[in-house]
Specification:
Distance between the termini: 75 Å
Structural class: alpha/beta
Largest sheet: 7 strands, parallel
Low-confidence stretches: none
Shape: globular
Radius of gyration: 26 Å
């Protein structure tokens, strides 16, 4: 048995410190570089990552450095590797039967008749993965050697790395039934057919030089999947009996993460013929000792891979010492999850307040924390006393810093009463809104943003650098808003938006205008594919010093007799897409944000805005993975949205938007939001969610997104009409709206205009059938 290191991480950011991978991939998509040039850039990025991790204290040859690179998504990588792309992509196989990089990108983004795979959130994070489509017809086969190539590449560079793959149970548990199989099919039934390909894949990794392999199995912690704890544990027992017995394999580390491993899975994995287990001890606790653990390495995830706070290293070391009491053959230090969920390096944030920086730990600092704690495990607590004391002092400094607690903010939240969370009677609202708004049947609208062009980004950058003054920048934004309003008039859209040219991001824009937040320069985190966000840092009590959106909404409304929506980001999404303080309950922080938005809605109403959209795409995202934690979460998350919107007049129509949020899972919560209209993703699932809406008796207006904006494809009139017709066939047509499934920020104008023209034409065709 090759020894396991005293400390490791479960993954590392893969987009590059300055988003080098994003730029290289998008250049390839744009036809500006070849596959060979893209592969060369990616190889350089992987090499730089390995060297950086070695410099930070991980070993070059002890398998502590994970090989966790991906061009787009780790689930898609595995889908391609085991040949599980759906039937519609099989013509993309090469002459040798393998899938190349362009096949991978086609499955992710869609091209022509190749509709992309569906996308959804990875457990309770803002990372999106591509959903495998599995049925009885899926023919598993080893169809890519990319994982082995990367291991060999590292070997040539003097590194023995640990390849990271999605485990077989999680891969099938996260899959959806293929169209051929039908909605009731359960992909986990194909486990025994998939395992021989994993055996082959593991052998290829060993042959390439891998001594350890990491198989990620976070499905074993989740109670939000259509499988019980017992079913998932039984599947894990079968899977690892086969993989553990495979000849010529590397040693296996099975990693869970994101929550506490179920008791059933804990017992199964401890008894399984694998060499190491990694568990999350930041969102989970130690379970009881179980048989088989005495032969295992236990990687104790005491360094949080999900947040950016420096944390309590002394408490983390206490957990490590407690973990030793479980009787494992070895305890090693680990991160709770991959570090793909945090930015690269606090040292890159020179513009952040120095005091705030001392409270933070990004990926590189977390690697250093792992190294410190590992040294403590080997040499004893006294050997790292100085580092533990420094972390404790930073915690104390943070607790007492100005702005962390603001008496006026806390007094306002403490004074809230039940009436502050309740809007007026729904029937009365509908009547007043119908009279006030005068909208047609099947109103058309968009979700909020229009394309963020190069001109917009250049103007924003020039203004930030002082190259153009405030007056010139504001003039530019007014011209851009005017252009977007004119375009929507030309397209004959019913309810307009101002396009959000002034917003760099739907959360950061508000973070820059609210007290209690800080923003980063280079704190990029991958959201999906080549897309990255810069989560803001919510470090103190939140309040709104001044109106944030009113002047832009008021200006846009002055340009049209049609209604222009006011656009806000909801409190749950602001929390979900920020790094939030961990020193008080999320409910308290959410109510502070909710009150700030409540004030903004009042000011928008006073400015004459009659439709206000408060986006909550992250409502499902934050749903806890454990069933017992879900009801309290839904109580405060729904409550914060209602707090923000309950002060609106009956005649003001409140919209909300949810994307890739598995509508059916939180249907009761979405109903409880009490928004007048909810727009949702429906395009990638080809309208499947509409049946869930019908079955639930959803009482409010709903806009099933008929255009998947995460793909460059232009959906035809017929394609969009089919989804819209499906909606009006089973839902009261008075409740149905027509819209894309998300904002248009990432799209180009040519595809936007063509797709919206098709959307409007599809809507008019469906209206004809209704009027007949």
């Amino acid at each position: 048995m090759t020894a396991f290191p005293a400390g490791t991480i479960l993954g590392y950011p893969r987009i590059g410190r300055r988003r080098e991978l994003k730029r290289a991939v998008e250049a390839h998509w744009a036809g500006k570089s070849s596959v060979e040039e893209l592969e060369s850039t990616a190889a350089e990025l992987r090499a730089a990552t390995r060297r950086r991790l070695a410099d930070l204290g991980l070993g070059r040859e002890d398998s502590s450095i994970p090989e966790s690179f991906s061009y787009y998504d780790q689930v898609l990588d595995l889908t391609v590797a085991v040949g599980a792309l759906p039937t519609r992509f099989q013509d993309l196989r090469g002459a040798d039967g393998s899938f190349g990089l362009d096949a991978l990108f086609t499955a992710a983004r869609g091209v022509g008749e190749h509709a992309p795979l569906e996308m959804t959130k990875w457990f309770d994070t803002n990372y999106h993965y591509l959903v495998p489509e599995i049925g009885p017809e899926t023919a598993f086969s080893l169809s890519s050697d990319r994982f082995a190539q990367q291991v060999a590449e590292a070997r040539e560079d003097g590194f023995t790395t640990r390849p990271v793959l999605v485990g077989p149970v999680t891969f099938l548990a996260l899959a959806k039934a293929s169209d051929e199989a039908g909605a009731d099919y359960r992909p986990l039934e194909r486990l025994e057919d998939l395992l021989p390909v994993y055996v082959e894949l593991l052998a290829s990794l060993r042959a390439a030089g891998a001594e350890w392999v990491q198989l990620d199995e976070p499905a074993l912690v989740s109670q939000s999947l259509p499988y019980s704890d017992a079913e998932l544990a039984a599947a894990a027992e079968r899977a690892y009996a086969v993989l553990g017995a495979a000849a010529g394999r590397p040693q296996i580390l099975v990693a869970s993460g994101y929550a506490q491993l179920s008791a059933e899975a804990w017992s199964v994995l401890a008894a399984a013929p694998v060499e190491a287990l990694a568990i999350d001890l930041t969102r989970g606790s130690l379970l009881a000792p179980v048989a088989g653990l005495e032969t295992k390495v236990l990687v104790a995830g005491v360094v949080d891979g999900r947040n950016i706070w420096r944390g309590d290293l002394a408490a983390a070391f206490d957990k490590l010492e407690a973990a030793r009491g479980l009787g494992a053959a070895q305890v090693s230090v680990g991160t709770s999850t991959s570090l793909q969920h945090v930015p690269h390096d606090v040292a890159d944030e020179e513009q952040l307040d120095e005091r705030l920086r001392s409270w933070l730990a990004f990926a590189d600092q977390k690697v250093q924390q792992v190294e410190v704690l590992a040294r403590g495990l080997v040499d004893g607590r006294d050997a790292i006393a100085a580092e533990l004391d420094a972390a404790t002092a930073a915690l104390a400094d943070r607790a007492g810093a100005p702005g962390v607690r603001v008496d006026a903010v806390r007094a306002r939240t403490a004074g809230l009463a039940a009436v502050d969370f309740e809007r007026g009677n729904e029937e009365e609202r509908v009547a007043e809104q119908t009279a006030a708004l005068g909208l047609p049947v099947l109103p058309t609208t968009t979700i909020g943003s229009f394309p963020q062009t190069g001109d917009i980004r250049r103007a924003r950058a020039a203004h930030a650098k002082g190259e153009i003054d405030d007056a010139a920048y504001e003039g530019f934004l007014r011209d851009e808003i005017s252009r977007v309003i004119d375009l929507q008039h030309d397209l004959d859209i019913d309810v307009l938006v101002h396009g959000e040219a002034e917003r760099n991001d739907m959360v950061q824009y508000f973070a820059e205008l609210l007290d209690g937040f800080a923003v980063t320069q280079n704190g990029w985190v991958q959201s999906y594919g080549s897309r990255a966000t810069r989560p803001s840092i919510l470090w103190g009590d939140v309040s709104r010093p001044a109106p944030m959106t009113v002047r832009w909404a008021e200006f846009a409304q002055s340009l049209s007799e049609k209604h222009v929506k006011g656009m806000l980001t909801g409190p749950v999404t602001i929390l979900a897409w920020s790094f939030v303080r961990d020193d008080q309950p999320l409910a308290e922080t959410a109510n502070q944000v909710g009150l700030a938005l409540r004030d903004e809605i009042t000011d928008l109403e006073n400015a004459g805005i009659k439709i206000i959209q408060v986006d909550e795409p992250a409502l499902r995202e934050l749903l806890p993975l454990k069933a017992e934690d879900q009801a309290p979460y839904l109580d405060w998350s729904v409550g914060s949205f209602r707090l923000a919107t309950a002060g609106a007049h009956n005649a003001t129509q409140i919209h909300t938007h949810l994307c890739y949020s598995e509508f059916s899972v939180v249907i009761d919560a979405i109903t409880a939001l009490d928004a007048d209209v909810t727009s949702i993703e429906a395009a990638r699932s080809r309208g499947d969610v509409i049946d869930d809406i019908r079955d639930s008796g959803f009482p409010h207006g709903v806009g099933p997104g008929v255009w998947d904006i995460h793909s460059p494809r232009v959906p035809s009139v017929e394609e969009q009409q089919a989804i819209l017709q499906r909606a009006v066939d089973v839902l009261p047509h008075q409740l149905v709206w027509a819209n894309p499934d998300c904002g248009l920020k990432t799209r180009g104008y040519d595809e936007t205009v063509e797709s919206l023209r098709n959307l409007v034409a599809a809507t008019k065709n469906v209206r004809v059938g209704i009027s007949a």
